[in-house]
Amino acid sequence: MPIRWxxxxxxxxxxxxxxxxxxxxxxxxxxxxxxxxxxxxPSRTYGHLGPQxxxxxxxxxxxxxxxxYAVAERGDFRMPACVVEQADGSTVLDLVYAGxxxxxxxxxxxxxxxxxxxxxxxxxxxxxxxxxxxxxxTVTLAYSIxxxxxxxxxxxxxxxxGATTLRVRSAMSSSLDLPDDDWEMxxxxxxxxxxRHVVTRPLAxxxxxxxxxxxxxxxxxxxxxxxxxxxxxxxxxxxxxxxLVYSGDFLAEAEGDSFGTARVRIGVDPENFTWTLEPxxxxxxxxxxxxxxxxxxxxxxxxxxxxxxxxxxxxxxxDALRPVLVNNWEGTYFDFDExxxxxxxxxxxxxxxxxxxxxxxxxxxxxxxxxxxxxxTVDRRKLPNGLDGLARRIEGLxxxxxxxxxxxxxxxxxxLFAAHPEWAIGVPGRPRTEIRNQLVLDMSRPExxxxxxxxxxxxxxxxxxxYVKWDMNRNMTEAYSGALPPDRQGEFRHRYILxxxxxxxxxxxxxxxxxxxxxxxxxxxxxxxxxAYAPQTWTSDDTDAVERLAIQWGTSLVYPxxxxxxxxxxxxxxxVGRVTSLTMRAAVAFFGVFGYELDTTVxxxxxxxxxxxxxxxxxxxxxxxxxxxxxxxKSPFEGDRNETAWMAVSDDRRHAVxxxxxxxxxxxxxxxxxxxxGLDPDAVYRVTAWPAGTAPHGELEGGLRGGDDLMAxxxxxxxxxxxxxxxxxxxxxxLALDVVEEVAAG
Length: 746
Ligand code: DGJ
Hints:
Layout: E1 3-6, E2 11-15, E3 19-25, E4 31-38, E5 82-85, E6 96-104, E7 123-132, E8 137-146, E9 151-160, E10 166-178, E11 184-191, E12 194-202, E13 206-211, E14 221-228, E15 239-245, E16 250-256, E17 262-268, E18 275-277, E19 282-284, E20 287-293, H1 296-311, E21 325-327, H2 329-332, H3 338-350, E22 355-358, H4 386-396, E23 400-405, E24 409-410, H5 415-419, E25 439-440, H6 446-461, E26 465-470, H7 492-510, E27 515-518, H8 528-531, E28 536-538, H9 545-555, E29 564-569, H10 582-589, E30 593-597, H11 605-620, H12 622-627, E31 629-634, E32 643-649, E33 655-662, E34 672-674, E35 684-690, E36 703-706, H13 707-712, E37 715-718, E38 731-739, H14 741-745
Parallel strand pairs: 21-22, 21-30, 22-23, 23-26, 26-27, 27-28, 28-29, 29-30
Antiparallel strand pairs: 1-2, 2-3, 3-4, 5-10, 6-7, 7-8, 8-9, 9-19, 9-20, 10-17, 10-18, 11-12, 11-14, 13-16, 14-15, 15-20, 16-17, 24-25, 31-32, 32-33, 33-38, 34-37, 35-36, 35-38
Helix pairs in contact: 6-7, 9-10
The protein binds (2R,3S,4R,5S)-2-(hydroxymethyl)piperidine-3,4,5-triol.
């Protein structure tokens, strides 16, 4: 059994082949943390790792003790896991052990996205109740250990078993104590068009944190941090990951204390949160996923990739290969009609593209971004035959149709707003701030969710639509619901996200054939919560190949390639004006869910041939590029940031695709070799360059190399000062590696 409860020691030991998570009931009744890290012998107990005896808390502060879910005001002066205000205004709590249950598998979280076990032998869960007598508060801490990944899922429920109302002011999903503070915190931060860049800060006495108060997880920070040893690299050293399966305001915070221990907590951001718990009521908080890797960030990412790809994403698209798409947004913006779209689709089909996505502007009277959000009826001026007429023509070409929607928003210039101004969030008597000329619908109101489900069901049922891009183009201001009483306004932001999840879940259930891609002005809500409903995410509005190296590298720290939407767009690039080759753009976009975002009708004959070759390459290697193990080789955040390299390797290690990129050319520079990782050292691989004939090293072209050789000595990505090929900036090298049967057998 992966969870052992030692009754005598009152100790829980969760384990799989790679990790152990151990805690016990201390003499005070509090839960003491003993270990999360390399697997330890589950038949033994580990009380010696925690505070000794009752004396540890008697007449001295509990600061140095490692605790599972610490409260304030009882001698632990570090950041607490929760703060709950009681009827008398006090916030003192004494959460002591009150019982536990071990459950096979992993229970679902009502209304919230969560990882799951497909069969009961894939995971086991222990739920521990800790209760405070005077207030009647019971907190249930749930821990699930997965059989196949070095991850522990944590979840917290608050229940009011008392007779008076409680106000939950802060309720973290996880708080993890580590016995030393020799860590750096890695966070994924940025902004619109430069999302999820890797930022590393040393842990020092005091706190470091990232958070969002935007009503969405945000482009600025991601609900994910890593604590790694200063010497940890991609391939070696310890790292802990802390990720929140949530799409709203979050806080991820680490603290080094004066006794040299560290605490990292993650959960709903307490800044704008309070929740009223009437007697008998329960509050379920989002799930946090903790991961441990002994061998580097690559191993940590692999754990998250597998868990999120295989046991967070749901539905028939989870395991299916994703179509190569073309999206008309950057090709036409709002300026299109049926014939223009069909002309674009027709070229797309000729070059092998499988799905045509119609972006913003197909509904109401939306010729600019200043109207019609909320009016989800087809604009017959542009599409006289409706979505169905367009879909039939697209299907006639042998493609399928995808559609853009932005359900959570309303334009002040819309029929919906005229009919229901109260459905837009805002404080009565105060102006509402418009961003991108739009307001946010109150998704905490069940009637709004019901209305959206009805109108969107009509749209999606009106034509054979196989894909939906669900956008969300502004963050929240004046976050206030006219439907909630004043003392419950602190619940609004969480209730909003629960409404979004509800609508997603209902549309998923009603339209199981539809592949959803989430989007928020690009990657402004790229989080695990969204992945439970939308298996892929539009990574960034920035499609420039150089910018994408950093964005996709950072994103891949926690999210799998199957989630990372990556498109080739036109040059000069619409976001940064850079001109890169079609090859460079595709070579970067290959490492994700590949597509195009441009006007295909303006391709030259050469470009058509090139694009057809790109699509054919991607389709041939789609399995490894969407579902392979992603191995980061050379970081765009290190050194002179001029070179990036990565690869995807199939689980059986028989196929791999390598991408190596150089931003600026360097005159008279020496040769560069790139050692690969993750291959089978005993296998022989055929190395093929894409596009054909571009290998910098003549002998590599179609050459055979041992896996051991490729990993020890590497491939030459730059031959040196006398490279006869044309020089230039923005160079990419793509290599396909395939095990050669006969040689391998011999
Ligand atoms: C923002 C998205 O990120 C873009 O791809 C596009 O869909 C626009 N919104 C449309 O308004």
